[in-house]
From TrEMBL:
Gene Ontology molecular function: any one: DNA clamp loader activity
Occurrences of domain Replication factor C C-terminal (ranges): 67-147
Biological process, per Gene Ontology: DNA repair; DNA-templated DNA replication
Organism of derivation: Aplanochytrium stocchinoi
A GO cellular component entry from the record: nucleus
Protein name: Replication factor C C-terminal domain-containing protein
Subcellular localization(s) per the UniProt record: Nucleus
Length: 160
């Protein structure tokens, strides 16, 4: 897929670095049409010089640094840090669905959580997803799920 994107960039005179290609692959989840759409949008936005940050901005995905900050906040045991982090997400206008998908992937891979904690969080994420599908307020659901994550990260023996 990257090879094809490189060919498109060459034909369209778009400058695109390796990190941007990898980011396009990641945010499109292997869908070539999505990758091309993101590439076109990023190229028109930046006058033909596409980088990873621009691709993330165009796609609405959260940067790796913000995902890393999630883990720092969860392990900080300082609720005020959680409030600031959540406020930042809300004010920056990140899509709650996209953010929750990314955080869920992050949690599943987090070796500091045991299977019981991951199971409880999976259930909470499913409930949050259902609430959002039913039209619930995104900000309230975001604050609720992040608060729940915070509690699970703090607990050694989670309770359902």
């Amino acid at each position: 897929m990257i090879k094809r994107l490189e060919e498109i960039c060459e034909k369209e005179s778009i400058e695109c670095d390796e990190a941007a290609y990898r980011t396009l692959l990641q945010v499109s989840q292997g869908d070539m049409r999505k990758a091309i759409t993101y590439l076109q949008s990023a190229a028109s936005y930046t006058q033909g010089k596409v980088d990873s940050v621009t691709v993330l901005d165009i796609s609405g995905r959260v940067s790796d640094s913000l995902l890393d900050r999630f883990q720092e906040v969860m392990k900080s045991n300082i609720y005020k840090d959680l409030e600031k982090y959540t406020d930042h997400l809300v004010y920056e206008g990140y899509g709650v669905d996209t953010f929750l998908d990314q955080i869920y992937e992050y949690i599943v891979d987090d070796e500091s959580l045991n299977d019981a904690q991951k199971a409880i969080l999976s259930m909470k994420f499913a409930q949050t997803d259902k609430a959002l599908e039913d039209g619930s307020n995104e900000e309230i659901q975001l604050r609720a799920i992040l608060s729940h994550c915070f509690q699970i990260y703090k607990s050694k023996e989670p309770k359902i």
